[in-house]
Amino acid sequence: MCGISCIVNQEKKVSMPTLSSMTLSLTHRGPDAQKWRLLDKGKIGIGNTRLSLVDLSSNGNQPMEKHGLTISFNGEIYNYQEIRALLEGVGFTFHTTSDTEVLLSAIFHWGLEKSLELCNGCFAFVLFDSVQKKLFAVRDPIGEKYIAYTYASNGDIVFASEIKALLKHPFVKAKPNVQRCISLLYMSMHAQQQETFFENIFYIPPGHYMTIDMEKKTKPRLHPYWTIDAISQQKYTKKDLPDLETHFLDLLSDSVRLRMRADTHIGSILSGGLDSSFITALAAHTTSYPISCFTTGYKGIQNDDLFYARLLAKKEHMRLTEIQPAYVPSREEIFEITRHFEEPIITKVYYSMYQNYKKVQSKNIKGVINGQGADEFWLGYIHADPLYGLPKKMYAFDAFTKYWFEKAHCTPYLAPSMKKRVIASIVGVLQQNYHLASENLFSLQELSIKTHLAAILHVEDALSMAHGVEVRLPYLDKRLMAFALSIPPHLKVADKREKYINRIAAKGILPTKLISRKKQGFPIPPLTYDTSFESLFSQEELFSSEILRSIFSKNALENMATKLHPATRWYLYAIAIMEKTFFR
């Protein structure tokens, strides 16, 4: 993984000092090398900070140039060796063993969209074609990696892996996006994920690329190339389950095999649940070294995850590191995590995850596999999320909008004048991400993938790359995602168990106790965390927040500060902390 930066101006030269400042602000993402250069008579600047996992030599440093193409690439093309073999078969030669060089040759040979169709990976990159005089900014199909962009007041168009790099540009100012804060308060992790918390700063959407024509000087254009909406369900029945289970295991095994490719050791975030245990066990059968695994627990509370993680680690001869985050972080740590996250840290779980990746880095592990994505694609939340238990009539658009508005804990404290604005925010999220299908479960699954999973992917990217650790997600293999969406939801849930196909496929690979355990999320900190986090801040910090005061009256905030449950009240503190971190 890497950090990418780019400045484009169709009229004049860009500033080299600004480009270097933006690039160096991303050194945590790529501690192994930092480099930048100007192109197209100085009208384009591209920078890169490199975290090297494939071709550890300086030959793989970026920006990389070949065939008149220059690229700054963040991510991995996991099947690059297979693509390289195809290219070598038609006469291409290579000077590195990196996936970046393979991608450049693929785009030169097949064009951008055909190459993206062939690529199996997670990525975000900017690419300049000196022949076509076009710049491309590309994001992977499901959005594991990010490109933020904005329009600077001096005419520059600015791109980067993180917003903090955009803010290094002297003509880009940080202003809060209050509407996005409203969306967070009312829809939490189902909120709008393509908007940022910064006004006029946006993300390239998943499965899209942006083009800028330097010669014609046309406005930037977004182009879709992959979407889950294009994948249709097949008419599978229960008779097909044995074949579906076999195909699932084949795809997952190959996905894990590809994601264990590296010129350095790859570890695992092992929660002890079905998903992470399954891929970790499969990974253990593909490596010549004992896998380093990392599991989070909390002092003073029973933690089944630790029990099952130890069980699997012993069976597969893995090196297990158990992490127990402190109950009371410092104010500085919370502000530091917020700075890396670039969003309000609405749950204390993020602090634990941050500490998890910090420990991974301390063990000199540059990359880990992780089980994220399985729940959204295989209905792992069906018995845990109250959304799936709503009566059928609630899924109509108007009723669903009302549901989100009325269930929010802050609704009773909202001024009547704000009601229309809040409902408009909810409607905006649903219009973009929710389409009622003939089967309610499929509609909710799509909503969960486009919002909840997107939020989780941001968490994983931001908190891991804060420590220069790459996360690889086998369940988000493009082939596996398409297969999952082709299966009707009712076949993914059987015998009152979620992820039925996954559980059957895991027989003989995982211990029976682990396969049959109930679904649990990332370990939730005890209530002690809520009170200890709050103890670091005063209520006055809530009352003085300009963002919160634009949504609630001071009297309402005072009532919320005393009457809301601590876990819910923390949302307000998280927004106030975000405001202090970036907007004051």
Percentage of residues in DSSP E strands: 15-25%
Shape: globular
Radius of gyration: 24 Å
Helix content: 40-55%
Give me the CATH architecture of the largest domain, please. Answer: 4-Layer Sandwich
Average pLDDT metric: 93
- The CATH topology of the largest domain turns out to be Glutamine Phosphoribosylpyrophosphate, subunit 1, domain 1
Report the uncertain regions.
Answer: none
For the record, what is the CATH homologous superfamily label of the largest domain? Aminohydrolase, N-terminal nucleophile (Ntn) domain
**Main sheet record:** 6 strands, antiparallel
> Gap between N and C termini, in Å?
31 Å
Spatial ordering of strands, largest sheet: 2-3-1-9-8-10
| CATH structural class of the largest domain | Alpha Beta
Number of helices: 24
Helix/strand/pairing category:
alpha+beta
Q: How many domains comprise the coordinates?
A: 3
Strand segment tally: 17
